[in-house]
């Protein structure tokens, strides 16, 4: 079988090590240097000729994370790698996935174009902000689902008095999966924004009085939406409010917002490293899921079957 090489970018080294450990081999060697002006200069330290190469790198801000990934891919392509997969646990710039007003970019499409131009043959990620982003690529995309991480965790608890909530209309499909699997009701928090990261008004659609509520979302940036939803749900009579969120972007005053909110707990995955610890935040590992997906890709097995089995 063709050799497999697992490489890590600087931002995701902590996660790449977990993936490699679950896969059963060490990370391959790459030296990522910088010139004095910040220009990134990756040097692959071993042969990748003809190999299956996987570059593991989430792409939150700063943009240098994306640039580093593109340069690593280009280096492998020019070194005659056989097949290159960009493993992007958190796919940055995914929130700009459509032209919803005049003279704005479709940034998710631009990033897709850049990855293909750099030489990626495949992309693997978890929980795109919007499913249609898969259509921006003309190469295969393995779109893993965080349900395979969160649901086994939730199954350990008594959810007989629990209902699930979508923090906005766009998240209904995601939250409905949980409500269906755990056979619980679903409520919707309908929000109106006045500008990015700022919620003007929120209304709860459904009954939450006397219930424990789990909010389901794909990412938390300033955590404004989650915290506002928790406050409104408590006002409507919810007993306890927790949130599960795949990607802990947590920028700006996010940690302060969470600490001062009605949220009793925020459960996230490790696609992005936390910048500080919080008693309210629980981190679940995704390394095993990515390792299994990488193995199935290398062995030409189904990815869909992998996460469906975990559900």
UniProtKB/TrEMBL annotation:
It comes from the Bacteria. GO terms for cellular component: cytoplasm; ribose phosphate diphosphokinase complex. The keyword Cell membrane does not apply. SMART domains: Pribosyltran_N. GO terms for biological process: 5-phosphoribose 1-diphosphate biosynthetic process; purine nucleotide biosynthetic process. InterPro entries: Pribosyltran_N, PRTase-like, PRTase_dom, Rib-P_diPkinase. One of its GO terms (molecular function) is ribose phosphate diphosphokinase activity. Keywords: ATP-binding, Cytoplasm, Kinase, Magnesium, Metal-binding, Nucleotide biosynthesis, Nucleotide-binding, Transferase. PANTHER family: RIBOSE-PHOSPHATE DIPHOSPHOKINASE FAMILY MEMBER (PTHR10210), RIBOSE-PHOSPHATE PYROPHOSPHOKINASE 1, CHLOROPLASTIC (PTHR10210:SF41). Transmembrane segments: none annotated. It catalyses: D-ribose 5-phosphate + ATP = 5-phospho-alpha-D-ribose 1-diphosphate + AMP + H(+). Its EC number is 2.7.6.1. This is ribose-phosphate diphosphokinase. Residues 4-119 form the Ribose-phosphate pyrophosphokinase N-terminal domain. The keyword Nuclease does not apply.
């Amino acid at each position: 079988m063709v050799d497999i090489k697992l490489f890590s970018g600087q931002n995701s080294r902590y996660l790449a090590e977990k993936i490699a450990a679950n896969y059963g081999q060490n990370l391959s060697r790459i030296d990522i240097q910088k010139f004095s002006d910040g220009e990134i200069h990756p040097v692959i330290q071993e042969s990748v000729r003809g190999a299956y190469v996987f570059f593991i790198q989430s792409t939150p801000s700063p943009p240098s994370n994306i640039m580093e990934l593109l340069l690593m891919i280009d280096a492998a392509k020019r070194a005659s790698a056989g097949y290159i997969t960009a493993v992007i646990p958190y796919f940055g710039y995914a929130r700009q996935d459509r032209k919803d007003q005049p003279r704005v970019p479709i940034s998710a499409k631009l990033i897709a174009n850049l990855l293909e131009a750099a030489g990626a043959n495949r992309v693997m990620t978890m929980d795109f902000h919007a499913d249609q982003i898969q259509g921006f690529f003309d190469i295969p995309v393995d779109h893993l689902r965080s349900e395979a991480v969160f649901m086994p965790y939730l199954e350990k608890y008594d959810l007989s008095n629990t209902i699930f909530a979508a923090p906005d209309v766009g998240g209904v499909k995601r939250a409905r999966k949980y409500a269906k699997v755990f056979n619980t009701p679903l409520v919707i928090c309908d929000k109106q924004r006045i500008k990015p990261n700022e919620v003007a008004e929120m209304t709860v659609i459904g009954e939450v009085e006397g219930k424990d509520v789990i909010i389901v979302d794909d990412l938390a940036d300033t955590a404004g939406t989650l915290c506002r939803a928790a406050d409104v749900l408590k006002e409507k009579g919810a007993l306890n409010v927790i949130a599960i969120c795949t990607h802990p972007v947590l920028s700006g005053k996010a940690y302060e917002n969470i600490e001062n909110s009605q949220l009793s707990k925020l459960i996230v995955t490790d696609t992005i490293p936390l910048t500080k610890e919080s008693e309210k935040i629980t981190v679940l590992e995704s390394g095993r899921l990515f390792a299994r997906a990488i193995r199935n890709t290398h062995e030409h097995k189904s990815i869909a079957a992998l996460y469906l089995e975990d559900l």
